[in-house]
Amino acid sequence: MKNMGDGRRKARVEKEVQEVVSGFIIRQLRHDLPGVVTVTRVQMPADFRHAQIFVTYFAPQTDDKKEVDAAEILQSWATDIQDEIAHVMKMRYCPKITFYNDETTEKILKIEKLISEISTDPSVKARLEEEDID
């Protein structure tokens, strides 16, 4: 029976792929993506042949409200990024990478905004004080 391990190797490889991709973005793509691109997480199966890379993008404040799809731009660079991973990591198989926009950060920001609006709303505050909830 195959040794399944405890996942430490998988986590280590995912972390290393995250660092290589982040470094590539910093060195090569800072002009294509003005703003802040963060590689939030990498998910890989146990055979390391595929990698799902989740990114968040915060655009700089400008007058034009043009939407930038960071995952789409990064996907167009996927073969170059895969070459970088293969060069740096020396793995048996270079993972085929796919980029996704990580929406969890946006959801967290929306929830925090709603909570702050609720906590500053006087009617909600009064009701909470009546019910003795803080």
Describe the 3D structure.
With 134 residues, the protein is of the alpha+beta class. The protein has two domains: 8-102, GMP Synthetase, Chain A, domain 3 (2-Layer Sandwich), CATH 3.30.300; 103-134. The chain is built from five helices and three strands. The protein has a three-stranded mixed beta sheet with strand order 1-2-3, with helices on one face. A hairpin with a 6-residue loop joins strand 1 and strand 2 (50-58). Helix 1 (8-28) crosses helix 3. It starts with 7 loop residues before the first helix and ends with a helix. The model has no long low-confidence stretch (mean pLDDT 83).
Biggest sheet, strands in spatial order?
A: 1-2-3
And the CATH topology of the largest domain? GMP Synthetase, Chain A, domain 3
Specify the helix fraction band. Answer: 40-55%
- Biggest sheet descriptor: 3 strands, mixed
Radius of gyration: 21 Å
- The helix-and-strand class reads alpha+beta
- N-to-C series of helices and strands: HEEHHEHH
CATH domain class of the largest domain: Alpha Beta
